[in-house]
Amino acid sequence: MRIPTLLLLTATLTLSACQSRWNPANWWGRDRESAVQTDVNPLIPDQTEDGRSFFSSQEQNAYVGQPIQQVIKAESHRVPEGQMIVAVGVAAVHGVNNIRLIAANGGAVEGGVLTLNLMGIVPEEPVVGGSDVTREVTAAVVLTDQQLAGARVVRIRAAANSQDTRVR
After folding, report:
1. Is 109 left (phi over 0), alpha (psi -120 to 50) or beta?
2. Over the stretch 145-164, which tens digit does the pLDDT of each residue have?
3. How far is 117 from 104, CA to CA, in rounded Å?
4. Residue in 98, 114, 93 with CA at minimum distance from that of residue 159
C-alpha cells in the first residue's frame, strides 16, 4: 500500500511542476501572454482634475489646518532616526482629517522645550456631537537627533491644553 501511494504522490508532484499538457492544472485553459506598454503608467493620469498636466511642476498648497481642540495623550518613542512623537487628541467636530504635528517657532528649541502644534483640516460641513472616542485623532512625526538638539521636553499644543513628553 505504501509503494502505490508513494508512486502516485511522486507522479503528482512531478506533473504539477512541469508546463506540459499532462499537468492537471493546465487542463481547463491555458495562460495567455500579453504585451505590456512600459512607457506609460496607467495609474498616473495625464492631467489633473482642473486640466493641468500632471507632470508639470506644481507649487505645494499651503497647509490650512486648525488646532485640534484638546490633546489627551503624548508619547515619545526612540527610533533609529531619533524620536517618534505620537499625539492623540480630541477634535471639536467629526471628520477632521490630515492631522499633523507642526513645529512652532520654526522648530526652534526654547528653554529646552520643542513645541509642536497638533493641527487638522476641518471639513466644510462638520458634524457636531458624539462622544470623545468617536472624535479622537492621532498624529505622529519622527524628529531627528539634530532637530531635537538641546531639547529635553517636547510640548504638544492644542487649542485648549498642551501635554509634555520627555525626550529619551
Report:
1. beta
2. 999 999 999 999 999 999 99
3. 6
4. 93
